[in-house]
Amino acid sequence: MFNGTANILKPPGISSFALIKSLRWLLDEKKAGHTGTLDPAAAGVLGVCFGKATKTIPFLDDSRKEYICELKLGSRTDSLDLEGEVIREDLQWNHLSAEEVETAVMSFKGKQQQVPPMYSALHYQGKRLYQLARRGIVVERESREVEIFDLELLEINLPLIRFRAEVSRGTYIRSLVRDIGDKLNTNAVMTFLLRTKSGPFKLEDSISYEEIENQGEKILLKSYEPLNLPRYTIKDEEYQRAENGNYLIKENFVESDIELAVGEYFLLFSESGKFLAISQHQLEDDYHIYQPHKVFI
């Protein structure tokens, strides 16, 4: 068993689940999990944790994601991408100017209510929405608040539009494409999607399946490397307390100043630099303690 995290460049045409299953087989590691799924047709970064590194998944900040998307006006499918069946077509985009397109697209920057697509993994009365959609069942979906932090138009070559979007977790780019079409009084379908950033994982740092196949586990990131948490060091004589998951006090640390808010998590290392645990500053009976929360020894 080994522990580590991979920033995988997922190719289009394979589901996140199928890719992880293949990686489990390749690395002979049963325990693996991803940090945020990608549609089968989409490509881009996918954080995958193996072994004890799966304990870090709840602590990885994936509140922001970034995509490059291409859409085509004048067509809509039931899945809102090219995987689905065409349900509407029109030529209403013919009269649009570049200025009208830019105004419509940029109007989506900021907080808004968004209706998720039917082809999604959200639950409805115990069923996944995509399971209902495959049976031809369409149900009313509640809108959810999402935020588009940044939008940049990359190209307008009607009926094609290409843009970059930085969005909050839970934002569906396919729904954004649908809404852009509605704003322009036409239909729209997503023709290309590339995730360039998901929390700490960036496209420029990603590795391919083939690179893992050639280099194996040595190419993986250490469990703590993607975590954006403060780091503190425990004294060697207190190593066993951390190993056993016992609480620590300020005097157990090498650092004289522990600048943590109550409830804040941090990374705990030994004096030799060994990663020991994800720990939390807690207050019990007006006494400050530092509790190992996830132990990695």
Automatic annotation (TrEMBL):
Entry keyword set: Isomerase, tRNA processing
Domain of life, source organism: Bacteria
Catalysed reactions, semicolon-separated: uridine(55) in tRNA = pseudouridine(55) in tRNA
MF-aspect GO terms: RNA binding; tRNA pseudouridine(55) synthase activity
Domain Pseudouridine synthase II N-terminal: 24-173
A Pfam family it matches: TruB_C_2
One annotated GO biological process: tRNA pseudouridine synthesis
Catalytic site positions: 39
Residues of the tRNA pseudouridylate synthase B C-terminal domain: 174-214
SUPFAM superfamilies: Pseudouridine synthase (SSF55120)
CDD domains in the record: PseudoU_synth_EcTruB
Listed EC numbers: 5.4.99.25
Function field: Responsible for synthesis of pseudouridine from uracil-55 in the psi GC loop of transfer RNAs.
Family of the protein in this entry: Belongs to the pseudouridine synthase TruB family. Type 1 subfamily.
Entries under HAMAP family matching the protein: TruB_bact
UniProt protein name: tRNA pseudouridine synthase B
Native organism: Halanaerobium saccharolyticum
Gene name tied to this protein: truB
